[in-house]
Amino acid sequence: MSDTTDKPAAPARIDFETAPERYKHWRIAVDGPVAELILDVDENATLRPGYQLKLNSYDLGVDIELADAVQRLRFEHPGVKVVVLRSGKDRVFCAGANIRMLAGSSHAHKVNFCKFTNETRFAMEDASAGSGQRYLCAIQGTAAGGGYELALACDEIILADDGNSSVSLPELPLLAVLPGTGGLTRVTDKRKVRRDRADVLCTLEEGLKGKRAADWRVVDQVVPRSRMDAAVREAAARLAAQSDRPSDVEGIKLTPLKRASDGGTVTYSSLRVEIDRPARRATLVILGPEAAPPADAAAMQCEGAAFWPLRLSRELDDALLDLRTNERDLGTLVFKSAGDPARVLAYDAFLEANSAHWLAREILHQWKRVLKRIDLTSRSLVALVEPGSCFAGTLAEIVLACDRSFMLIGTEKGDNRAATTMALSPLNFGAYPMSNGLTRLATRFLGEPESVEAARAAIGSTLDAEACEEAGLVTIAYDTIDYADEVRIFLEERASFSADGLTGLEANLRFAGPETMETKVFGRLTAWQNWIFQRPNAIGPDGALKRYGSGVKADFDPERV
Amino acid sequence: MTTNAQGAVDYSTKIPNNVGLNDDQRVLKALEQWHPGYIDWWMTMGPEGFQTSDVYLRTAISIGPKGWAKFDYVKMPEYRWGILLAPQDESRMVNFGAHKGEKAWQEVPGEYRAMLRRLVVIQGDTEPASVEQQRHLGKTAPSLYDMRNLFQVNVEEGRHLWAMVYLLHKYFGRDGREEADGLLQRRSGDLDKPRMLGAFNESTPDWLSFFMFTFFTDRDGKMQLESLAQSGFDPLSRTCRFMLTEEAHHMFVGETGVGRTIERTCEAMKAAGIEDPYDINRVRALGVVDLPTLQKKANLHFSLSLDLFGSEVSTNAANFYNSGLKGRFNETRLDDDHLLTSATYPVLKFVDGAIRMVDEPALTAINMRLRDDYVKDCQGGVSRWNRIIEKAGIKFQLTLPSVAFNRAIGEFRNIHASPEGQLLSDGEWAARKDEWLPSKDDGAFIESLMKPCWDRGKYAGWISPPKVGIDSKPGDFEYVKIAVS
Fold first, then answer.
1. Would you say A271 and A287 are in contact if contact means Cβ atoms under 8 Å apart?
2. pLDDT tens profile A74-109
3. Contact at CB, B114 and A173, closer than 8 angstroms
4. Distance from CA of B132 to the nearest CA of A (A)
5. Is domain A262-509 given the CATH code 3.40.50.1360 in the classification?
6. Residue from the list B186, B340, B361 with its beta carbon closest to the beta carbon of A163
7. Counting beta carbons within 10 angstroms of the beta carbon of residue A493, is it exposed (0 to 12), middle (13 to 18) or buried (19 or more)?
8. Which of A139, A269, B13, B91 is deepest in the core (most CB within 10 A)?
9. Where are the domains of chain B?
10. What is the pLDDT of residues A432-461, one digit of tens each?
């Protein structure tokens, strides 16, 4: 298909950083242990021209704010135990992703958009599962498509029983595509709706309301409108009582990131992104901690967003989103690091020792999410472990997340940096599961569990290149004679392969082991959806997505593939 | 007894009909099961206080020109609500949209089942709603004639509900039966179970509101029925065509009700020598409704009724049209391709801070088109009202406000505009809206006039008698024999 809409002359950079005072579509209202997260979309405040966000529908801009809100609720409001998600509009909850936006978007934008919105839905579930911040969805009005999927990401759904409020997944009958933010998976796997009933739901444009919605478990409760506030209060109180989040604790402010770009290099405080456009490659250089960890948790809280592990995780997250969305031609991401591995391990030990502290817990979960974001980035991921690097503990996870990793044995002549080493910490063995539910080490050594145990035995040891290769922590270790040339050849070869082929290959190889909702959404659903998004029945000139809104019915090719 | 092709109504079943219910036991059973719930609804939500009175009502006994209006006394709960469809024309076609030229459908096409059901349910929901809205009005009727007209409107809205329920039962299976039950469960203005459309959840507190409602809001009903009467789904078309004969009476009640109110006001002003229509206090002291207040009432009901047309540019409306389910007003008389896939239609929109015309694809502008036809239709009635004022020699003209005025749905929902269509700030609107919409004081004044007048041949002081009686009955005819309960 032609991708002309994809590459306008000077595409405006999409910025993933925002803050509540700049929100156009969401409001956060905190009242003790309960926060309301209110969706009230400004239909004219779109990310791109050409559509209006009617009926509380969303585009990437709306979802960037949601992701920010979900993040801030965890860090800035540790006392919030329940988040009540609701609409600020009267007769509509949310109409899902804006269809005209989708119809006018390139394939790549649609895919990136879906991935980000999916990551945000999982971030909501992670807040609940990981740090006891439960989500309660109060639906008054219609929740269609992505609107219902937003509700599905919550722990509980209360639907008003007023003859109008309904939940639906009308993508197939209306647009000939699939619900793209996990609706199918969450209906069957999370809410355990019977498959034939799910089939009814997903082919019924108007969806379900009232008693049947509750009987079929697509929502948890239906209550009369006049009881809505009371029912939400009661459910919020019940969920709050289950939460282990602290009361009467101040949060930390997620201050704006320090980011500077000269076009070729993007510089953050502890991360540098060097872009090599002719080679279609970005190198992310991670800078280790400048100082030892603070004395105690209180001191960590005082450092707030400047605390190195939190600061780096936010910078890395921002860089990944920026590269994914704004630098789509850079097919290979190379990770390097520079710093003192002992200090990195000291931070790991600090976080582990303080893991009962709300902030340390949040930071560990944050790293888990950022590392998952690396796993899910459809670029070739390469780690170069070189002298002076600090891929230890948490940062070693980045090496383990890569498709290939290269390690230099010893140092080049005249290089007075420390010899290349890696090290593991206890955090490599459980703190950062991948979306398949396993650690990166367990996934890597799926067929050789003894290697996981051997690695565990090496916790805290400084492992040189040969030891790392021996332990299977890197793909290969080269000595100074071969290293530079082998790496160059590898990168050049990689860049010569088909970008689509690589995306498919990497996504298949990265997630060995069991299926989870996450792997189903990011694997199965995404692959099918991305296929459908390419097919004429959806996006051809007579396809449903292109014809939507014109009143003219789509003309389908009946051939089953 | 079987269906009579001439349109006679089968009274051998509990439910009078010309659709051969006797031969359709499945639907007959469903309707008979629905019937007690309907009667229960009528007794609790129908006209309050007059259920045992004998009312001189029109009942349709056949759909032919002679048989559809038979008058007699009847107690409303015993009214023979029936299923009456205009006669089937075997050669009828789908006349617009992608299926244009196909034979009209006698069964619901599977792919349009959900869409059609929604259309039927939305139309059906308005019918009982207005009965609920008007249920307290009998008590303050300005005459037995008006009271009878109110009840006629009410029983016919009830029949229209039956018509829609028949379609739901006959063509939409279990979902249709559930929706039919839902029509009896929602209540106008109820917080928990409101009626589906906004204007049908507003109160009808007084007779002037009732007349305005039947003029403006029932006229929306007429336009909706007109466009559904074009439907390629033949049973819906036939149902709506017959309903339109009844709907015309509702509009007559509204137009003449307001007209007689105007007439009485003008007459009283002249008798008292008041020339200035804006001398509101003196006019009101005469016990009649001053013309500026009538204008405010018209402003309110017109703007609420415009909201019923939905968004000016609407994908749903486009889908309905292209699918052949809902056409335009007088579709078959329009001279174009009836496909509209390449035509445009001018739509008044709010663009870049200004109200202006924008050409939109005609298919998506179906709602706008129907609304334009509606506004024209309203203007006809307003002009006739103005002739009454003119004849009385009073310098005043009633006007329809701008379509941008007081809107809650569509292009202008987020802005404020004066009746002349001038944009206003929030502050200006708040400061001036009582000039244009009935205020609390206006409402209280109208309420003070709402004293019952139930003597034969007598009329409340704020309204003139009609020119002729119903069924050509003399002036003192006892249209309602009020039962003393």
1. yes
2. 999 999 999 999 999 988 999 999 999 998 899 999
3. yes
4. 17
5. no
6. B186
7. exposed
8. A139
9. 21-481
10. 999 999 999 999 999 999 999 999 999 999
